[in-house]
Amino acid sequence: MATELRDFQSKIGTIARINIAVALAVVVLKYIAYQVSGSVALFSDALESVVNVVTAIAALVAIRVSAKPADSDHPFGHHKAEFLAAMFVGAMIAVAAVLILIKAYGGLVYGVTLEHPSLGIAFNAGAAAVNAGWAWLLVSRGTSGRSAALVADGHHLFTDVITSVGVIVGLVLALWTGWHFIDPLIAAVVALNILWMGYKIAIQSMSRLLDQAASPDIERRIRGVIETNGIGALEAHDIRTRQAGRALFIEFHLVVPGSMTVEEAHVICDRLENSIERTIDGSEVVIHVEPEYKAKPDESGAVVL
Ligand code: ZN
Ligand code: ZN
Question: Is 216-304 assigned to CATH 1.10.3720.10?
Fold first, then answer.
């Protein structure tokens, strides 16, 4: 199990490093696109990709930190580092959106001169294709590995692809109609969309940072395991779960006959802890033992054995 986790983490670490290389390549392509065209929207798009490089590095650091084993300073592990990184990514998206808005405003007020726009479009489209492929990979890998930082990074890259598409559409329209103000206008619209995505990512990570419970499906599975392995005990109640990255902390009260010896109760606890930890990936279980007068059979979610 421990080796499996290490393998998984080194695989994720490799993904994060490729992530940074891809982001750097995209920045170069987009900067060339801006240089050859002089388009404000293409410049904004390149700036947004600089933010991608910064967030990719944040994801790499988060994965390193969250993989560190528990120590005396952080006895529950460092799993939440990934949520912090996801929030940082959300903030960086907001910064990128503001930068695009400032550029768009400048373009609207002072006007835009387009030099070789079709060459700029070609470079930008190439960068967008690289981003789209990589974003898809990040989200699918991050989801299967429950890495909030990788998923956030993948979602961020998708917003980047939307930016590129918006910018290209704007440029084509500007050229077609001769109305060059469309170029910064489209960039402004895309910036607002990016702002919305950043807000959603930040809100989601915040909820998880505040000890979000496991999904109802996982809580049902926990109750099922207690039901089949709780022989000898009378009831389990006050079942509480909280997620921290890939770790899931589970605790509950176990009611046993008051006359039961500590030794017997401990055997039941060990059996329950082991069977839950085997069934629920990444879980750590703590059980509080109580005599029968503490039973709460009417509590919703109580498991009567
Ligand atoms: Zn209790
Ligand atoms: Zn023990």
Answer: no
